[in-house]
Amino acid sequence: MPVNNQQGRDRPKPNKQAPSVRNDDRRVRKTQVALIGAFVELVLEKRYDAITIQDLLDRADVGRSTFYAHYRGKDDLLAKSFIGMLAMLDREIDRDGPGGRRVAPVRELFRHIGEARKFQQALARAHVLERQYHAGVEYMSGTIERRLAALSGTPGAVPLPVKAQALAGTLFALLRWWVDHDAPYTPEQMDAMYHAMAATG
What we know:
Layout: H1 5-10, H2 18-45, H3 53-60, H4 64-70, H5 74-90, H6 106-115, H7 117-125, H8 129-151, H9 160-180, H10 187-200
């Protein structure tokens, strides 16, 4: 059956770039997962300072040029992977549904860190945990401020950026205390206590 030429011209052309874009995204994600997995294994096996970029490349089976296309070094890999994890956990709050008033994914974060305590302790011994948590405060202060703005009908006595920074700092101070004291409360209890403090200012 012949096709009307006008109809053929009016049809939208398929996006020929989409598959390659998806493939590129998939390759990048696969590389990141391989590097993060290799990094965690190496941190558990040897001193942080002794881990070289070549160690990471060999363990993850990733090329040097590919690594430096995404990261400046192992500290940058640590920071970006931590922020990526926080972003993933923060999206969990959207599942709370209508009426939810949480401003930070406390139970999700504490549960995740609790499952990786040996890794966290290794970072603490290497004196890099504070840098990681500092990056977390900077990231979470932005997401907390955005959630506070959505919850607050009118501005309070404390400007939102100030309150968000304080709440983000409190979150990571509590997390460090929780890890150092062998997790005396469940992630759910820590979430409830954190948000009780956040609600009272």
